[in-house]
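I keep forgetting this: the sequence line spells out the residues, with the fold written below as integer tokens. I include a record here:
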Amino acid sequence: MEHRETVTAYAWTEPALWSSLSESLWGRQHTTSDAGKGRYWMNWMQSVVARSHDDESGMTLIELLVVILILGILAAIVVVGIGAFQNTGDTEACKTTVGEVESANAAYYAKNQAWPNDIALLVGANNYLKTTPKASWGISVNGATVSNTCP
């Protein structure tokens, strides 16, 4: 058994073995010198350790930034989509309010036999309208005409 260990120890110092090992691992020949053997094996061990760490799962900084970028783009799409629905809702609410003002205008005419000159005559004690419409919608009454600037 001692003889085998001696042969093994001798085999690792054999230049031909170093060259063939180097060629099989990295595809190039390694020249050996007394100073270079330790450095060679240190580099080999570091590459083995580096390869074992390459297989670890996890996210790199670039992958994390790509995920954050994709989430940001999706969030922007959602915000724009919600804004479009909100504008549609405001437009429909304005049109509905215009219809209510027209009905209140006709009810005022039926009761008083005259058209109102101002929307304020339809709101309040007369109970044709519960509240004054939004000022931003620009709904106004002038006789039988109800005008608006709905979005």
